[in-house]
Amino acid sequence: MPRTEEAAAWYSAVYSAVQEVPYGKVTSYGHIATLLGYPERPRQVGMCLKYLPRVEEQPDARYNSASVPWQRVINAKGVISHRGVNGAERQQAALEEEGVEVSRDAMGERWIDFDVYGWFPRYLPSERAERETEEAEDGEE
DNA sequence: ACAATGACCGCGG
DNA sequence: ACCGCGGCCATTG
């Protein structure tokens, strides 16, 4: 459990943001951090997920491995980060369960082919404005 | 109390 | 294209 109020608030913010990643879609730690207004904290996003309680241990917790789709968060390179024993392997299984295709590269890394802004339909206000402008321009041509 | 350690990332060289 | 480095901060040793 987080020690300070601030930390607790951060954990909740991260968990609730991750809950918005749609089924079958994938996003990155950095994108979650950016959405929350702290683009320099992707690492802390990973930390929150690391400490996400498992549903077996805390079935009634607001945030646990069943209510928060932790498996939909990967790193900015598009690769499932390794951790612990079989961590990446379990994440791959969870993703494949929902139809996400996971490949292996020459180094054995588990990567997912995703389009940086195609996977998660939520943007920072500034990004949203840019996209809408671009789309409007495309429409005029 | 202090130092090391991460489910990370973008920028330079 | 491939490191290395600094920023980040709760947790752990």
UniProtKB/TrEMBL annotation:
Keywords: DNA damage. InterPro entries: ATL_DNA_repair, MethylDNA_cys_MeTrfase_DNA-bd, MethylDNA_cys_MeTrfase_DNAb, WH-like_DNA-bd_sf. Gene3D superfamilies: Winged helix-like DNA-binding domain superfamily/Winged helix DNA-binding domain. Residues 10-100 form the Methylated-DNA-[protein]-cysteine S-methyltransferase DNA binding domain. The keyword Transmembrane helix does not apply. Pfam families: DNA_binding_1 (PF01035). One of its GO terms (biological process) is DNA repair. One of its GO terms (molecular function) is catalytic activity. The keyword DNA damage applies. This is Methylated-DNA-[protein]-cysteine S-methyltransferase DNA binding domain-containing protein. It comes from Acrodontium crateriforme.
